[in-house]
Design a protein that fits this description.
Shape: flat
CATH topology: Rhopdopsin 7-helix transmembrane proteins
Structural class: mainly alpha
Largest sheet: none
Length: 118
C-alpha cells in the first residue's frame, strides 16, 4: 500500500487537479478575448500536455500494476505464484523507466534534440 497504491492515488489526484487548473486558465484566456490564434495555441498546448500526462501515468500504472497485484494475490492463494512469474512482473515494472524517455521523445521536439546531443 505504501509503495504503490497510496502514491498512485495521490499522483492521480494531483494530476487531475493540475488538469482542472490548466482548463480554467485556458478558459480565462479565451474569455479575455485574446487573439484567436493565441487562444487556439494555448488550447493546443493544453491538449498536448494532457495527452502526454495521461500516457505517462497510464504507462506507469499499467507496467507496475501486475507486480503489485501479484504481491497482494500471492498470500491469498497460499503463495502459489511461481518465482519466475514474480521475476517477470518485476522486470515489466522496470521496463517503465525505459518507456518514459520514449514517450517524451514522441511528444516533445526539445527532448528529441537533447536526446540526439547525448
Amino acid at each position: 500500500l505504501l509503495s504503490f497504491y497510496i502514491p498512485g492515488v495521490i499522483m492521480l489526484c494531483i494530476y487531475l487537479k493540475i488538469y482542472l487548473i490548466a482548463q480554467q486558465q485556458v478558459r480565462s484566456i479565451h474569455n479575455k478575448h485574446m487573439q484567436s490564434k493565441s487562444s487556439a495555441a494555448a488550447s493546443k498546448m493544453e491538449r498536448k500536455a494532457t495527452k502526454t500526462l495521461a500516457i505517462i501515468m497510464g504507462v506507469f500504472l499499467s507496467f507496475w500494476l501486475p507486480f503489485f497485484l501479484c504481491n497482494i494475490i500471492d498470500p491469498l492463494t497460499g503463495y502459489s505464484i511461481p518465482p519466475l512469474w514474480f521475476d517477470m512482473v518485476v522486470w515489466i515494472g522496470y521496463f517503465n523507466s525505459t518507456c518514459n524517455p520514449l514517450v517524451y521523445a514522441l511528444f516533445y521536439s526539445w527532448f528529441r534534440k537533447a536526446f540526439r546531443i547525448i
